[in-house]
Every structure is written in C-alpha cells, then in structure tokens.
Amino acid sequence: MNDVLLADKSLEELEEIAISLGEKKFRASQLYKWVAKGVSYDGMKNLPKSFTDKLAESGYRARGVEIYGEYKSKLDGTVKYLYKLADGNIVEGVLMRYKYGNTLCVSTQVGCRMNCSFCASGLDGLIRNLTAGEILGQVIAVNALNVTDVERGVTNIVLMGSGEPLDNYDNVCKFLTLVSDERGLNISKRNISLSTCGLCDRIRQLADDGYSPTMTISLHAPNDSMRKEIMPIAKRYSISDIISAVKYYFDKTGRRIIFEYSMIAGKNDSEQCARELADVVKGLSCHINLIPLNYVKERGLSGSNKKNVYRFMSLLEKQGVSVTVRRSMGSDIDGACGQLRRKVIKNEDD
Ligand code: SAH
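That is the input. Now the predicted structure with S-adenosyl-L-homocysteine docked in place:
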C-alpha cells in the first residue's frame, strides 16, 4: 500500500485518482478544497464516506503535517511552530505578522547538506527531502489554526526554513505551483521568496522552467576566500558564478535580487568587507539585508554588535547600495534556522 499525501497532488492528479477509484471527476474539486483547508476525512462533509474510505484504504493521507509545538515571542509578534511529519520527523517554521500580511517561513528539508558554519540546520546533515505536500502542509496547518490575528491566513511565503530549497528542486517546484494555484491556497506568486546558498545551475534552471520567486541569495562574505571559510558551497561556486546566475535570473524574471548578509563578529563585519561587498553588487538591481547572526551554541560564532552593523550599513549606503538591517525576529525563541527543532529533539533524547 502506498502512503501518499493528498496535498502532494494537483487537482488534475486528484481527478485521475477519483476516476481510478470509480468516482465522478467533480469529487476531486471538492476533495482538493478540503485538503487545502487541512480537514481530515471525517470533516469532508460533501464527500460520500465510501469515497473517503476508499482513499484511506488506498494509502492516501488527508493530512500529513501536524502542529507539534508553538512558541510565541515576547519581543515581537513572531510565532515559531514545530511540525510533526507522518514518519515522526520534525521540522520548524516561523510566522511573522506584519501590517501588510502574514509571512510564513517554511522548511524544505529535514536537516541540510550544506553545513554552513553558523547554521544549526546542517549540524546532523541531510535527513531527507520534504515532499511538495509536506511543504504545503506547513501552510495548511498554520491556516487551519484559525488564530484570530491570522484571520487572513498566510499571505506571504519565504522558503527560508531548514534545508536548501534548490537541493530539493522537483518538490520545491511542485510546491511553488500548488501554493499559487487559484483553486487552492491561491498565494500570489509575487509574495513568494526563495532563499538559497547559491546553487547557480539551479538558479538558472528555475528561471528556465518558468518560476519566478523573489531570489534571495545567502552571500555572507564579500570574497571567495572568506566565503569558503564559512560556507562549504563556496568551493563549488564562486561569487562571480553567483553574480552571473542572478543576472540571468533577473533578465528572465524581472525580479529584483536580494542578498542576505549575516554579520559575524570579527569575521565579515569590517570596513574593508563593506567596501568589497559594495563592489561585488555594483550595477546590479538588488537589495542587501544585513542580519546580526543569531548565536548557535554548537557553532560558537557570535553576531556583530549593533554599532558595527549600522557602521557597515552606512558604508554601503555611501556607495549607493540599497540596504536595510533586518530585525532578527524571535531571537528569544530560537528564531534562526534549525535551532528550535534541534533543541526539542535533544531534550527528548535526554
Ligand atoms: N539554505 C537556504 C535557506 C535556509 S537558511 C539558504 O542558505 O539561504 C535562511 C537564512 O538564514 C540564510 O540566509 C542562512 O544563511 C541564515 N542563517 C542560518 N543560520 C543563521 C544564524 N544562526 N543566524 C542568522 N542567520 C542564519
């Protein structure tokens, strides 16, 4: 028997499933709506029980991502969620509430292969890829909470949780298609961002395949030698490879590029680094986000202090670079990538 999430399926695929189980095609549209609402088989009021029974017997799951923990920041409106997957694995996500809408940061893998030197997600390597339905399921689960101030539900998505989205290419592409389907969650394509450590071939391929999320590049260093020290992927792709890939992406999609630069005390936060960084992005239609590094105990690196962050920012501004300091949201709830999942798993093991 297969064990497949219905959220992995497009409407057209559900139609095929319905027909193969001897049902009318229109039942698939009803099913598709329930799945997008996170309703279990029992709650699918307008579907015959014979159909939902057949689905369950054939190994289709109506829900596959359950909220497992909820941690509210006292400092801002951020909520961190832990989700449990059908096989018991745990991933995490962050909901950030802004005036203009609700942004959910979703995970794309359990663990990560990239092993960046400051990040908690890669500490145990890659455990497995998430399916499209498991990424979608995070959005569905948060929407289904119906928390009053999430009334409008999730309006914006950033693929910035644990994992490297472009290392799980096919599932992430299917997720991008499903999440913006007008008949389903209908999240505007313009409101979706993807963050990558810079897998250049895949950046080009994404544009070639017709996807256009806002491309966010985790740069974190202004030159290759420093980048190699903090991000192993820099041994495969140089900064100039990244720049040519994002130019290609911009030309094809018209979407402005964003660079993330996590500031590590005494490492990448000098005046010299700011000058080099301004040169790297010269002439590009882009924006730089500076983020003071969140401290991760196992990694032992500290974030730059406020004074250095703002000095760095003003040096960039003087060079005409568009730059902001991003608030490090939810730092009291282990807001950074992979931190909370690890803490909870470790406590369970103790
Ligand atoms: N793999 C993707 C997306 C996941 S991480 C990527 O590399 O972009 C999302 C962002 O958080 C990345 O920019 C990542 O470098 C950053 N990040 C990871 N750990 C961090 C930490 N401890 N403090 C601040 N930013 C961190």
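The mean pLDDT is 92.
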